[in-house]
Amino acid sequence: MSSLPSKRAKLEEGTLDEAETETLELIDACQNEIDALNEKASEEILKVEQKYNKLRKPCYDKRSELVKRIPRFWVTTLMNHPQVSGILDEGEEDCLQALSKLEVEEFEDIKSGYRIHFYFDENQYFENKVLTKEFHLGSGSAENSDCPSSSSTPIQWKEGKNLLKVLLSKPFNNKKKRNSEYKTFFDWFTDNSDPVNDEIAELIKDDLWPNPLQYYLVPDIEVEPDDDDEEDNEDNEEENFDDEDGDGEEDEEDGEDK
Question: What ranges does the record give for the region Disordered, renumbered to this chain (predicted)?
Answer without folding.
Answer: 219-258
